[in-house]
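Working notes for the structural subgroup meeting. M.R. asked for a predicted model of this chain before we commit to crystallization trials. I am recording the input and output together here so anyone reviewing the notebook later can reproduce the run.

Input as submitted:
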Amino acid sequence: MRTQRCIPRSASKATHLMLVLLIMASRISLSRSIHRIIKQRTPYSQFRPKNFLKCHNCPLWSSSFSFCLQTLHHRGSTLPISVSASHSFSSCYSSFSAPPMAATSSSDDGLDANPLLRDFEFPPFDVVEAKHVQPGILALLKKLEADLEKLESTVEPSWPKLVEPLEKIIDKQTVVWGMINHLKAVKDTAELRAAIEEVQPEKVKFQLRLGQSKTIYNAFKAIKESPEWQTLSDARKRIVESQIKEAVLSGVALEDDERDQFNKIEQELERLSQKFGENVLDATKNFEKLITDKKEIEGLPATALGLAAQTAVSKGHKDATAENGPWIITLDAPSFIAVMQHARNRDLREEIYHAYVTRASSGDLDNTPIIDQILKLRLEKAKLLKYNNYAEVSMATKMATVENAETLLEKLRTASWDAAVQDMEDLKNFSKAQGAIEANDLSHWDINFWAERLRESKYDINEEELRPFFSLPMVMDGLFNLAKKIFGIHIEPAHGLAPVWNSDVKFYCVKDSSGSPIAYFYFDPYSRPSEKREGAWMDEVVARSRVLSWNGTTPRLPVAHMVCNQTPPVGHKPSLMTFREVETVFHEFGHALQHMLTKQDEGLVAGIRGIEWDAVELPSQFMENWCYHRETLMGIAKHYETGESLPEDIYLKLLAARTFRAGSLSLRQLRFAGVDLELHTKYIPGGSESVFDVDQRVSKRTQVIPPLPEDRFLCSFSHIFAGGYAAGYYSYKWAEVLSADAFSAFEDAGLDDSKAVQETGHKFRETILALGGGKAPLEVFVEFRGREPSPEALLRHNGLLPATA
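Returned structure, recorded in token form:
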């Protein structure tokens, strides 16, 4: 039986956007910048269950090899609904005076005290332990199974009798499983891993049972075929159509042996995905380089030396100091980047680089066989669903097609190549002029070091010297003031209102102009390599929902969390950020805003839920633009000790350096996207070509200097092997046109015109941020912009219009 493929309603408009993108790509000049550090964590398939709690893991930070990604572990694989001041304090709390999420009732001994099952207003992150997972999850699944059986026996093709009870079932599982999976990402322990691994098969089994329910599937089809269909809102139509599509992709049409095989594949993919991410984390934290001779780390800035000494203290070297050591270098981003950019010791750079690109590729942590098995199983899954390859399965819920994505990547590659070649020539000439013996034979561990020296020379900017101007408290104050200005919201600390998983985590209340709470969010800013995954991401804790109202009258308010891995405070100094870390925070906050400022009351398409993966980066990339807005930047760039503002000439230099090494940064991103598509379209698991051969082949067309023969980057490519980006990494490029054009609306209105900015911000909030997945992304964009997207803003932001003309 051939499974019918569902075509998105927005297919024709997606084709138009594709043409726009291709036109843009064909016009891109040699100085094309694609770097835009589009950070963690969270696009995703429209209603894919594994993405119901949508983690926005950000793309690989190509300019510094910082892998800014969230090892996004699947929340599930086959659900049909994508689940993936004192006065201030009291007013925030008052919104939770209504009954919270109901506990799962049970008379079993010990379960009443299990924090996973008890009533809570905010997840009890502070008390959940590994010992709670097995009994709590099994009791929860038993209750949800009973709820599902009841639904199937009483279901009718109507909203109250189908969608509302279904949302309750899925939300309960999503919130509880999301709680423990989040703890695994930010507070990992061997015990928690083992507990999750023990119950994961039962969790997936329930999701398969739900995702393949023909009773529910037929009820959704009946709604679409009923006379009432035309009376449904756009949001409800989107829900119904997506449920039908997702049921097919979940295997609802498979029978007997094929269904059994499909279910076995889903179980194994879930296990392999978890294991892949665990291996990356363990390989990263297992590497330590103890240095006692300061000459070996000559060139490292004071911030990096302080961090290395602080790490040494935590490892038992209690007398370590930044001045005298000893120092410990790790593969965690703040440490790794500092070495690559600043260490004059070329041998040290080579050692650290080699360790980084071979992570999780040997011994007990070798991800190579896991990659092979994941790709094999994904292809088998695609064949069962009557698709040619897994990329087609992935694209079934995206705006693009495989062919369109490949064409776009090739256009961008062609446009970027000569610029990248020139970038390399510039580095060779500059390093030779500086007397570098490696000038004629630059290798991978030389690129970032000499690129940083060239940037300092060309623009007279030293990123380390800028750190004192970007203290985390000042950056957050400026970010919140910006949100108040353009979106009319107030963000206030609510520390102590909700339990947190680490003392560094902050909790905030978001209020509208009347002072009423409308959302909440957690912020976990600092790197903790011993327990926390790398990267930056945003995720939802709970979503806005009418059905799941806490008081029966107003919708449940959304709650999000933002997670970064930036430089922690050293000694008595606050966290002093690089400019790129500032961009990261703005990026993740953009994702959080779309979740928190939604006005959709249908929980299944509220906030970040239900938005096509190709479009979801719009608000995050949009927010990054404000980092270059003079008033915004000057508002956050204050010296943490003196209060001195960032000098005007430095601001102008930051603007000038925005597109530095554009071609090279573009090609690095295209390598990631290209190898992703190649592995999920043409690669034959078990064939004559290994996955590393594929990477080398793609890299010949996307890298001026090919990867080392021993490069095993794929073994830590968590985006596609432990996250939701399989055959989807291209999505960052797709959304770039939308985000640049959206920001250009503010430029057209006048960035220095406060009233115009507020009016445009209100419109952005009421469309892009408010409508969520309740409308097709292009329809939402047109409602905001008044027209379909244009590449002009992106070209202009990257300084390409003169060259194009």
